[in-house]
Amino acid sequence: MLEVTNINKFYGGVRAVENVSLEVKKGKIIGLIGTNGAGKTTLFNVISGFDKSDNGIVNLSGKDITKLTPSNIAELGLIRTFQTATGFPRLTVLENLLVFSSKNNFNFFNNFLIKQDNSHDLIETAENVLKNFGLLEKKNQWVGDLSAPELKILEFARAIMGDPLIMLLDEPAAGVNPALLENLMSIITELNKNGVTFLIVDHNLRFICEITDYIYVMNDGKLIAEGTPDTIINNELVIQTYIGK
Amino acid sequence: MEGFLIFSISVLTLAFVYVILCLALNIECGVAGMWDLGIVSYFGVGAYSYAILVAPAAASYQHYLFGFELNPVFGILLAVTMGGISAYLIGLPSLRLRREYFLITTIAFSEVLRITFSNENWLTNGVAGIYNIEQPLKTFFSPDIYLILLFIVFFVFAIITYFIVSRLSNSTYGLSLKALRENESLAKTARIEPSKQYHSVYVFTGCLAGLSGALYVWLNTLIVPTQFTPNVTFFVWTALIIGGIGNNKGAFLGAIFFVILLETLSFLNLSAELALVISSLRIALVGLALILILRFLPNGLISEKPRFL
């Protein structure tokens, strides 16, 4: 589904990502781990179009997306989250979901000339999603007033509205309490059962090993290991990188 | 008609011009979050476009080459079109910038245009301006009736603008603008292309400001470059802040409140000396009103409301 081939990204003299290749097969949950500054988020930015790579190719479902804009890439079904859970603060919870609907037509002339009659259906869909995530009673609340855990949940609720093929999660477990982490893991597993593929960046090795099918490890901009969770936690190089000699 | 009634109708008629400007600024700034300090640019372009098409040919002491004396309907159409075209062109470089950089660029362009209006005698008759621009249909009515007619026509323009802007603000398009205003990076992940949305709303704002420029010349029957100083931009901003940024009803009310506040002071029956003092204090009093609003009603008279409640 997602193929990243020989990606390089330099910031001046700094090698943020060097010759990284990875593959995310359809229906899988893939992990990407590494210490701070390993280049994981830069790689995420390149894949999702927020940064342009210096060379290399990113393919999504057979289409070259290397030079596409983030919104074009999102149009193809790749939805990403950011390190800090975020939203549109002065839009309500319901509006935050509606923005992400895959049925939206944002064109000026379409909205100027033709009245769109699908808003009732969309609202109903969004309310169902909110109900499933336990956020229905907050639907008219500004997102800026939500708590951090609620924002984390909202990220997934929003993504569902966009019918994603693949989700890139940037440190979903960061700053999350154990109860919420369990909740997030069950949400990810449930979405995966419904056909959503995941590429997850995180520091939390336990979380990554528990939830993913395959893991890539980065250090200093390069891939240093890859394999199933069992092989990764026993990999000498990974242990050295994470814990030291 | 009694003096006070004439004055009130005239002030409200002028207020409707500001209502259109305020609604234009609201969808651009209140909804899309673009801090534009150059809305006077398109107001001026619209006003001159209307004047050039509707004004009579230049007299011997005037320097402008045009003056087609055409039907004002064509003048209004050209004003809207030129407002949009100039916004499109100015948007090409300035919309690459964000926040304060965008703000500075737009104010710079508005000054460039004002200086152009002052110096291009062949086009605008320079600082002397263009006078005696006939008001459409005026010969068919008595002055009192025409005053009321103007009031009604301008009110209809303001109401139509209000409904169009409200429809767009509450549409999916409006939602995309609000999303960009709140978090551009996240909005991109929702399939929203910032450059398209920003440019389209900027051109739309230019069209509306162009329309208000045409109405302004229709009302005043003359045009001079000093009508298009940055003061206009600050007046519109003040009116919008008073009314409530992000709320179209607030923009509508804010413009009316602002114009009444500004103009009523000049109607007070005072001695010549005191009138001069009060006239000089008008802007200061508007500033005071703004401070009081920001202190006691920071979101304006009517704050932004969620779309679905």
Folded structure, characterized:
In chain A, strand 7 (166-170), helix 7 (178-193) and strand 8 form a beta-alpha-beta unit. In chain A, helix 3 (93-99) packs parallel to helix 6. In chain A, the strands form 2 sheets. Chain A has a 6-stranded mixed β-sheet, sandwiched between helices. Chain A has helices at 40-47, 70-75, 93-99, 108-113, 119-132, 148-161, 178-193, 205-211, 229-233, 236-243, and strands at 2-11, 14-24, 29-34, 55-60, 63-64, 78-80, 166-170, 197-201, 214-219, 222-227. Chain A has 2 domains: 1-77 and 164-245, P-loop containing nucleotide triphosphate hydrolases (Rossmann fold), CATH 3.40.50; 90-161, no CATH class. Chain A is of the alpha/beta class and 245 residues long. Chain B has a single domain, classed as ABC transporter involved in vitamin B12 uptake, BtuC, CATH 1.10.3470. Helices cover 71% and strands 0% of the residues of chain B. The model of chain B has no long low-confidence stretch (mean pLDDT 91). Chain A binds chain B through residues 48-50, 69-72, 74-75, 79-80, 82, 86-92, 94-95, 98-100, 102, 104-108, 110-112, 115-116, 119, 123, 140, 142, 158, 162, and chain B through 164, 167-168, 171-176, 178-179, 181-183, 185-194, 196-197, 200-201, 204, 246, 304, 306-309.
